[in-house]
From TrEMBL:
It catalyses: (R)-mevalonate + 2 NADP(+) + CoA = (3S)-3-hydroxy-3-methylglutaryl-CoA + 2 NADPH + 2 H(+). This is 3-hydroxy-3-methylglutaryl coenzyme A reductase. PANTHER family: 3-HYDROXY-3-METHYLGLUTARYL-COENZYME A REDUCTASE (PTHR10572:SF24). The chain crosses the membrane at residues 29-48, 57-77, 180-202, 268-288. Residues 28-202 form the SSD domain. It comes from the Eukaryota. Its EC number is 1.1.1.34. Residues 123-142 are annotated as: Disordered.
Amino acid sequence: NSLTWSAQVFINVYTKIRELISHANQLEVAFVLFGYLFMHAVFINLFVSMRKLGSRLSLAASVLLSSSCAFILALYTAHLLGLPVDVVLLSEAIPFLLITVGFEKPYTLAKAVLVESELNEDSERPSSPLAEQPTRPGSPVLQGVEKAWSPIMRDYLFEISLLTAGAFSGVQGLREFSILAVFILAFDALLLFTFYAAVLALKAELIRVRKVRATTATKGAGKLLRTESEVELAHRNSPANYRAITLQALSDSTVDSRPAANSTATRVKLFVIIGFLAVHIFDMGSTFREPITGRSVPDSGSGQFPLVQGALPDHLPTVLADLFVYLKPALDILAPMKLTFHPVHEFYTQTPHPNSAFSDAAITAATRTGAVPESLGMESALSGWMVALVASLVANLYFIVTRIQRTLASNNDSSMTLVGQQIPEESDSEKLNDPTAPLRSVEECLVLVKDGPASAATVTNEEIVNLVRQGKVAAYALEKLLGDFTRAVQIRRSIISRDSLTKTLEASLLPYRHYDYSRVMGQCCENVIGYTPLPLGVAGPMSIDGELLHIPMATTEGCLIASTSRGCKAITAGGGATTVITRDGMTRGPVVQFPNITEAHLCQKWLESPEGFAEVKAHFDSTSRFARLQRLKVAIAGRMLFIRFATVTGDAMGMNMISKGTEKALALISERCPLMQIISISGNYCTDKKPAAINWIEGRGKSVVAEAVIPGTTVEKVLKTTVAALVELNVSKNLVGSAMAGSVGGFNAHAANILTAIYLATGQDPAQNVESSNCITLMAAINGGQDLHISVTMPCIEVGTIGGGTQLGPQAACLDMLGVRGAHPITPGANAQRLARIIAAGVMAGELSLCSALAAGHLVKSHMEHNRA
């Protein structure tokens, strides 16, 4: 029966493999084993690559099925043509063929088809739901095949042509395998554009149907998702998620005008095939030689076969085993043999002895069927397989390194580019950076530099460094003198490095290239020597006021984003966060002084009167289209008067705007009170970048309150604790504990952590986290103690969406992600208020997760596991 037959086949295969291994040395077995290991690595890489395209299993399985069919068809074709196929040879050579050829062609075709599918959907998406029309699945496949078939077929033809040369080499074994490989590639190309293309069409249609269903479900819902499972399902099936999965992997697509990413790999692998053929054409190995069979025992006169002393013991067991094996089928009388051992002579290493046991006649007489020549042939195969394997490993290693370098360069080039933004071209300052070139005189170089950027471009970097060190040119003015920001930064690095103690800056890992310094100079930073990249992650998604968002966070603290994401998950499962803006007003508090307290008191009364406030407001508001004075708070201390101006500032954070208005208002007050002396436009009554009770009580910037209700089941499943434990911990830690410490605005677990990370990601002033992090976290058990109510109150969130660091490329990209970049086109200040709401909701998620970890006792364990180098 079939079971017995299968068992017998398995036993035979096992016996044959064991016999082959016993006849080979350890190096040969190791090479074949490494070949199979790398072949499986190619399979794993195929699944990983297809997973980047949004397919967990189907595309990779289709590729393997297509390749297997091509292999079977090639074997059948070889059988019809009478081409002998050695199973042992095939099992040894197929892994190296797979490693060399790989699966780049199906991956390239899949990328092209899915990109066209994505582009078609974006271009054909109707403006109104009533006009929706299904996208034809055949169109993206045809367009993708049309754009990708040329490089794919070129690679196939090159590989087939090289293998065809091997087929005409005349080397036994290599000829048969090359013909079989040609058939495999030919059938693989045929199935790629027929069977595999059909699979891609189904995949494109499946993605489109999922997007349509997700869009329909989103439009028809009309309410917030209430359960954790619904939120996860909606996110997984959302169009944005599929678009992100697809476009993330297709950033180096071959369907545009840019060259294909795997062109280098293709060329390298062609050289590997050439080298593989050369190994055997020039007789560097003998693995593919057919064993010698059917030869009779030669008639030696004496019947003696001299052997080299020391060589026979290694092969005598094989000789004797083969003699007994071939005596089984039929009785055959062999001529008697007399084995004579001779000492090793010097001439053996130069010319084989005519009667040596290693001659074909002697070995044939010993085995009659060629078993020994086959095993001995494996010895000489070592050099051939070694060259082929090493060449394949070097080629793949070169490909991996090149791909990593290209990806990093592409990320650096594109990381600072937004839609509609151009990075200024950088001059080739390397040609001006020759330390060995002779320096011209200081006077001549100074004339060229002061003549303008065009003349300064002819001055070398070393000459400019010399000018700065001679005190002829200011280091901070290099950008203005040279007109080339990147070159100015490079020269400044050289100056600072040579004047420093360690002299390491010039060749350090601090990056400075591929950055748009035009958005930095005169606004964000001076004496620039580069930029410091920060890791950027996202927490979420989180439902905030009915909108599902990912929150960008830049941080170097491990577990912070993961913890915040857990809080986002729990809050969203309960229906999401709700936020309100209770007050909006940036403040500035100048200090003025009078000759006596009477004059100070009279000025205070006038400022607090409706007439005085109206007059001051009119002068203040005249300085800006957006700045509008809301209120004044005046405090007297002896002869000094502290005046706190509170102003709405639109979508800007507003410190410069309010300072300008305050200066104009103080000029008016000086006219009304001639004895007044202005001490400082900032008298620490604002209060800016310092902890102060007035900020906590009166507020500064945006005052936001956020709340959420988390079901008890979610608290237990997601947060791994209970409602009662959370409420008790919040009272003991955030309320009583902070009061015992005499805290002002610090009634929270770690609000500053989340707020500062979002500030860094979105280009806010990180120093303002001092007052912006003022927060009180409250928790209560509701619905009979079953559910948790959590809220955070943050009266001092100071943010803006225009000006300052928000104009830098990466920070502007994060604001784009949240949909709040720039000024709001209709309602001034709406974008900044929306950003403040998002920050408060994010802080609430971080508070919830950390308190849960503390209540469950998981904090130390998680940091020890995930936050250690």
